[in-house]
Amino acid sequence: MLLLSAFVLAACNAQNRQSGVRHQDFARVAVDLFRSACVLTQGSFEPVSKFAAVGHFVPVGKEDLSRLPPAVAEPDVQALWTLERDGGIYYLSLTRDSCSVKAERADSAALLEHFSGLVRQPPKNANIIVN
């Protein structure tokens, strides 16, 4: 079974309203990327790799991992890409049994709302098991 996950490395500070709105957007984008990169491809290596290439993700080499925040890549990461879009930084990673999208900054409440929407209304061609 393929384990699919999406999470945020850091949530926003609600004191800055403009930042808060941007961080809500970052959460939406992270879940949209997760849907497209991981759910629709069922997390398989080749389709995820194609998605990353078409979406202008930049591959991260093993030698570059030490310069990234520790939570970006799982210890058994097989492939890792990064994407900068509209001020947000996102990481797409694959392990043997998981596909994940992480955002450097995002609003945690917005992330939960968007991810819950994905679980309630999964894409029609996806095999999603909710425990």
Order of helices and strands: EHHEEEEH
Write down the domain tally: 1
Mean pLDDT: 80
Oligomer: single chain
What is the general shape?
globular
Count the strands? 5
The order of strands across the largest sheet is: 1-5-4-3-2
Share of residues in strands: 15-25%
- How much is the radius of gyration in Å? 14 Å
Organism: Neisseria gonorrhoeae
Protein name: Lipoprotein
Keywords: Lipoprotein
What descriptive keywords fit this protein?
Lipoprotein; disordered N terminus; 131 residues; 35% helix; alpha+beta
Structure, described:
The protein has 131 residues and is an alpha+beta fold. Helix content is 35%, strand content 21%. Strands 1-5-4-3-2 form a five-stranded mixed beta sheet. The model is unreliable at 1-17 (pLDDT under 50). The chain has one domain. The chain is globular. This is Lipoprotein. It comes from Neisseria gonorrhoeae.
Summarize the structure.
It is built from three helices and five strands. The protein is α+β, with helices and mostly antiparallel strands and 131 residues long.
Topology diagram in text:
Layout: E1 3-8, H1 17-39, H2 45-54, E2 58-59, E3 79-85, E4 88-94, E5 98-103, H3 108-120
Parallel strand pairs: 1-5
Antiparallel strand pairs: 2-3, 3-4, 4-5
Helix pairs in contact: 1-3
